[in-house]
Amino acid sequence: MTTPGRFFCSDAARTRGDSIVGTAPHGTAWVLIEYRGGWPVNGFDGLDLEPGTKALVFAAARAARARVLLVRCHGRHVPRGAPRWAVLRYDGTGAHRRHWGTWERDEDLARIAPALTTPGEPGGSPLVLVCAHGLHDACCAVRGRPVARALSELRPDLVWECTHVGGDRFAANVVVVPDGVYYGNLDAGSAVTVVEEHLAGRIHAEHLRGYTDLFPPQQAAVAAVLDRFGPAGRHDYAVARTFRDDDGWQIRVTGRPPGQAVVDVEVRARRTPQTRLTCRGPATSSAVVYDAVSIRPG
């Protein structure tokens, strides 16, 4: 899949066996902007938009702690009609909230700002975002685009390519929003299986990076429960208690039938040796890994 002799961070991560558990960035709101031109290396920040509108959207997204992603349909086909934008929010009840709009002039994007301060309409199917931001990191294009193609053939109404979502070394990365579920280390075949299972209400531990409403140790605890007791729906398990001690975290996960009712998980953190983690950055750094070292029915 990749070019011999050239460094690819996703190849290196697979060779090292890097853990993907607990690597989903925290957040419960997303702004999607359909942009059919070339994507700058830094995504929305790099767009040449009307300055006042761009500043307004940026400030509103920052205030709402929302992630702004550029999106597009996979392939050369250009959809009819004006490009769209969306504001999506995770709701712990499962009644996710969303706003949709269209834009033809830069100033039309100003409507994103008030959408970030109002609840939005509940319901609707989740969207499947595939990071294919090759200018940000080569692995996102090399591994992401075949996944985007396979998923677009499966569910063209739900799938978008998107800009950087984090974790380049785990490409191909898929994010289901507003469910707030990150998957990584996917290829075309595994991505189809993962997404079909997700949409059917069965989230598996394999390929799961984490849930974005949880912090990394909590993500690791839920992943461990899924690994031990089998797949479950997005809201079938909840973190009821998190206690920090000298060795790590004691996390209580509660479930609803037919899953395990109460599970206590001990999670510890460790740092990896210094290594190169991205294609673009030649500098080395270490990563934090979250290990579930004990899983006990409560």
Short description:
Helix content is 22%, strand content 29%. By secondary structure, it is α+β, with helices and mostly antiparallel strands. The protein is globular, with a radius of gyration of 19 Å.
What report would you give on this structure?
- The protein has a domain of 206 residues: Glutaredoxin (3-Layer(aba) Sandwich).
- Helices cover 22% and strands 29% of the residues.
- The chain is of the alpha+beta class.
- Helix 5 packs across helix 6.
- The chain has seven helices and 16 strands.
Walk me through the topology.
Elements: H1 9-16, E1 29-34, H2 51-63, E2 67-72, E3 84-89, E4 97-102, H3 112-115, E5 121-122, E6 127-131, H4 138-142, H5 144-154, E7 159-162, E8 174-177, E9 181-183, H6 188-199, E10 208-211, H7 216-229, E11 237-244, E12 249-255, E13 262-271, E14 275-276, E15 284-285, E16 288-297
Parallel strand pairs: 1-2, 6-7
Antiparallel strand pairs: 1-3, 2-7, 3-4, 4-5, 6-8, 8-9, 9-10, 11-12, 12-13, 13-16, 14-15
Helix pairs in contact: 5-6
Query: CATH superfamily of one domain, please?
Result: Glutaredoxin
Uncertain residue segments: none
What does the average pLDDT come to?
A: 93
Percent range for helical residues?
10-25%
